Every structure is written in C-alpha cells, then in structure tokens.
Amino acid sequence: MPEANPTPIGLPHVVFLERAARELDSSPGKFGQAAFLVLRLVDLLAASHEPGPQDDLFGYQAAATGRYCNEQLEPGKAAECLQQLVRTASYAHRRREPGFIAPAMLSLATHLEDSAHYPEALDVLATLERVAASGIAPADAVAGALLSGRVQRKLTRFEEAEAAYERADALATAAGDATSVLLSRLGRANVYWGRGNLTDAERRYRDVLRDAQAAGLRDVQARAEHGVGTVLGSRGQVPDAVPYLWSAYERYEDEASALRALHDLGLAMARLGAVDGAERALRVVVAKDVSPDNVLNAKIEMMHCASFRRDRIGFERWRSECGRDADKMAPNNLADYHLKVGIGLARFGQVDRAAVELRHALEVAQAHRLHEFEFRIERILSGIYDCTTASPTAEPPETPAWATSISEVSTALAGIAG
Fold first, then answer.
1. What is the value of pTM for the model shown?
2. What does the alpha-carbon distance between residue 61 and residue 326 come to, in Å, rounded to a whole number?
3. 177 — alpha (psi -120 to 50), left (phi > 0) or beta?
C-alpha cells in the first residue's frame, strides 16, 4: 500500500471536517461530514479482530452512519462511494477481515482524486494502510500505491510520488503484474516531466512505449504515446507532438483518459495557431469530461484561444468562469491560469496588468517547484514590454511543412465535435 502522509495523531480525517466547515450546509459540506463519520467507522475495524462487546458498538455506529448518508447526501457518485463503504465495512467487521474494505476505499479515493480533492484522497489511502495493513490483497496494494503516486504528483510532492511509484513497482513485480510494472515506470516518467527533466522523461516514456508495443498492451501504449507527445510539446516540438497525442486519443480504452489526451491535443493545436481545431477538441472536453480538474484545464485553454483570436468578450467570459475556481486550483492549474490571463491581457494591450499576472504565476511556480512553468514564464516576462497587438489572422509568408498533417487532425476533430 502507499505510504501516504498520515493525519496527525488524535486528529484523524481533519481534512474532511475542514471541507465541511468551508462549505457549511452545502452539498459538498454535507459530504465532508458524512465522509468523516464513515472513516471513523472504518477506524473501528482496526480494533475488531476478535468478537466482543465492541460488536454492538460497531453495529450501532454502522446503522447510524448509513442512515446519515441516506438522509443527508444527494444521489450521485459521492453518496454511492460512502454508502458502499459503510456496507463493506460492516461485512469486513463480520468476517474479521479489514482488508475487505480495500476496493471500496480505493473507489472513494479515486473519486476524490477525480474531484481534485487530493488531501482527502491521501487521508483515505493512509486510513486503508493503517486499518488493513498486510490484509490487503496484492492487486489492491498495487492499485493503492499507483493512486498515491498520482495524487502526490498532482500536489507536486515529487519525492513522495516517486517513493509511491517505486513501491508500486516492487509490489507489482512480486505479484507478477507486468502491466502495473509498466504503469509504475510511467508514473516515474511523469515525475521527471513534472520536475522539468524532459530528457529523462522522454527516454522513460519511449522505453515503456517500446515494451508496451512488444507486449501488445494497447492502453499502456496509449499512455506512453501521450507522455511522449506531452514532452515534445513542452520542448517546443509541437508539430511532432500532435501525431502522438492523436494516436493516444484513438488508442485509449477508457473515455476519461481519451479526454485527457484530447485536452492536451487541444493545447498543442492552439500553440500551433490551429485555433479552430483546438476549440473543437476542448469543447468536447468541457461538455463530456466528468473530472473537474480536466474541465478546468480545458476552460483555461479556451480562454487562451479566445485571446489568440482577439475575442475580448470570449476571453473575459472564460476568465471569469475560471477565476471562480481559483481558490480550489492545484498549483499547476493556478500557475497556468495566471500565465494565460497575463498573455491575454498583453494581447489586448494591457501590458502592466499582464506583467502583474505573470509575476503571480511565477511566484506560484517557484513556490511549488514547477520548473517547466518557471522557464516559460520567465521567458515571456523578459519580453512582455516588446509585445504588440498586431492581428493574429495575417497569413504567414509560407505554409509550414507540418500544416497538412495538422489540417487532417483538425478535420477529424470536426467529426468528433459534431
């Protein structure tokens, strides 16, 4: 299992109480209260290995917790996760097997990650480790370690993320799970990318791509292609990145991953000035993706596309919509938001305000060691007062060699958007 950061002794699951306090009587606030109660129920499993008087206490608390969830929570994925966990915890208690809670706990942690509630996800994973320990099935232990690495990476806790991926590798190797071994290697490549080490990240992605192709693992191949495309885009080789991203989108077996590839493809198309294709891709992400994090990223890029087209109304619309979620953004999202607000303001001639936004973006990037962002922001800041408001629609003197392939992808995207 992952070595997630435990909550302080005597103060378990405080992140859920903090969420409830922030949201007060709203639906998210009630979820925070319910999640706290459910996880306190799970805590009792650690002391219920033998029959005794605590059986009555557990049964009473389980019934009360289940009623609270049924009465207070609105129907949906969040409520389903908690209700399933109450049922599973009761079954695990009767069987004296705390490890039986692992699938339900992993489902809850995954939902929290998808909802961008990363500290809460780590609390769930740490609780599973504390309560179930060696009773967790090998496959669940591998899944938990991979999930922990992904969440830690999104929080830019790169050392913790790499440790979790190394643990996943060791567990998967011991279990003979070749697919998860490759996924752990992909996770470490993602850590290298997050730290700005693009050379090692690309090498690791390509190594996994080669091994996945040899093993016929289509989904792992898609993930590796996605990684190569991301690195090439970060390095400025955007035309080379587009085929990898498009291939990843077509090869992915689950919609959530495919939409992430489509999001990154939209970013790449926007950087090439193929704004029509970019917006087609991003509109699909905004309309279909269920991950708030991915939808937020797409909205930030739609704001960027609007400023590229000098659409001030569209820019301000997307800027306002994204700004409402600024206090909930992960560090990489927040840096990207302020960066692209700054670029947009500069395009509309408000250079002083643009510089303020860019400096804010740089502060966020430096505070969270987002080196790739730092390099980009510093480069833009150094030339911010040289920018012009010339029209972006003027035809270039020559058609670039990659224009045909990009046009083909844009045409294919029109079919998807339609």
1. 0.74
2. 38
3. beta
